[in-house]
Design a protein that fits this description.
Elements lengths: L4 E8 L3 E7 L5 E8 L2 H9 L4 E7 L4 H8 L5 E5 L14 H14 L13 H29 L16 H6 L4 H32 L3 H6 L6 H12 L8 H7 L4 E4 L4 E4 L2 E4 L5 E5 L5 H14 L5 H11 L4 H22 L14
Parallel strand pairs: 1-4, 4-5
Antiparallel strand pairs: 1-2, 2-3, 6-9, 7-8
Helix pairs in contact: 4-6, 4-8, 6-8, 8-10, 9-12, 10-12, 11-12
Length: 356
């Protein structure tokens, strides 16, 4: 006897989860509100018969909920909320959103977000801690410079941040309240830099446990920090079948627009010769990976080496510098993916193959 498929949509919140259950024909079977606790969720699923297909949106609780449910149901889809346009139409309530998620799951219209490699979970958390502290440190530095510039005090470069001449910078601030604010910003900066150095050491120590770390570090200017972020964000390279899929994930894919591609001429279907319009790089991507590859490409253009020679060849062909840097970033990403899959070290001959 064939098992009955049930499609379950979950609208997850901090304390509650709204659940909608559809049968194979799309009929609403059940709606319920559960507490966001593992016991309540598992008891609800165990009370349902048939083959269970479950979906919920990527969010704060998605990693915890995925680990809880992945072995309890037949199919589990953590979907991308940016692509769920149906949820934005019409009335919006928790029950309505849960039912729409179940309908999208039944129709196969959801875009899945990758979850699945628990082996890299420690490195993922360490990388997340390091990148967050880096962002916070940059934010405090920007606030310090904004404070000085607001009083026409020139502060180029990194000089205002160091310990050595800090008192000289504070003396240029005439108002005591602003000087006090600057001192608090410096204290916050010192604390963040200490935490960031600690997070960096722990992240690199964990990253060195992966054999692929040594291989990826052979790519010029990728470096141990960028390699650690790359391993944590990608997890496994085989989830990307081609380099173009990887480029899209890294924000290095070109978005194009075209219309009326075909027409009938004397009863024969012909393709039009209208040019395809390029609308820049894709916006829906992993920002950390884009920073990794564009940062490596930018550094490579200012230092001698095989990557700089590849960049110079692109310029010699008439390519604009900004487009050449993107092409170099795409080349580094493609090399990292193929080296990771093959377990091979960097070879300058990789630069002679097609990049895009």
């Amino acid at each position: 006897m064939k098992s009955i498929i049930k499609y379950i949509g979950m609208d997850v919140h901090q304390s509650t989860i709204s659940v909608a259950v559809l049968d194979a024909e799309g009929k609403l079977v059940m709606q319920s509100v559960l507490a966001t606790h593992s016991t309540a969720i598992l008891d609800f699923l165990h009370g349902l018969r048939g083959t269970l297909h479950v979906t919920f949106e990527e969010g704060t609780q998605s990693a915890w909920l995925y680990d809880l449910l992945v072995r309890q149901v037949t199919k589990l889809v953590v979907c991308n909320p940016r692509k769920n346009a149906l949820l934005k139409a019409g009335n919006k309530r928790d029950r309505i959103d849960a039912r729409k998620l179940a309908e999208l799951l039944r129709a196969g219209l959801l875009s899945a977000v990758y979850h699945g490699e628990n082996s890299t979970r420690i490195l993922q958390e360490l990388v997340r801690s390091y990148t967050t502290l880096t962002e916070d440190t940059t934010r405090i530095m920007s606030r310090l410079k904004a404070l000085y510039r607001s009083h026409a005090i020139s502060c180029p470069g990194q000089k205002p941040y160091g310990q050595r001449h800090r008192q000289q910078w504070l003396q240029q601030v005439q108002q005591p309240c602003l000087a006090s604010r600057a001192q608090r910003l410096y204290a916050e900066l010192d604390a963040l830099q200490t935490l960031r150095r600690t997070a960096k050491r722990e992240m690199l120590a964990e990253s060195h446990k992966y054999s692929v770390h040594r291989l990826l570090c052979t790519i010029p200017y990728l470096g141990p920090v960028r390699t650690a972020i790359l391993i944590a964000r990608v997890q496994v390279p085989n989830r990307f079948r081609t380099k173009r899929q990887f480029w899209a994930y890294c924000g290095l894919a070109l978005e194009t627009r075209s219309s009326a591609e075909y027409r009938f001429v004397q009863g024969q279907l012909q393709r039009c010769n209208e040019p395809v319009f390029v609308r820049g790089l894709n916006l829906n991507h992993n920002h950390d990976l884009k920073n990794v590859f564009k940062g490596a490409a930018t550094t490579a253009t200012t230092h001698e080496g095989s990557l700089r020679q590849f960049y110079d060849r692109l310029l010699a062909k008439g390519m604009k510098p900004e487009l050449a840097r993107v092409t170099l970033a795409r080349k580094i990403a493609a090399m990292a993916l193929i080296m990771w899959k093959k377990g091979a070290a960097f070879d300058p001959q990789y630069l002679m193959t097609q990049a895009a």
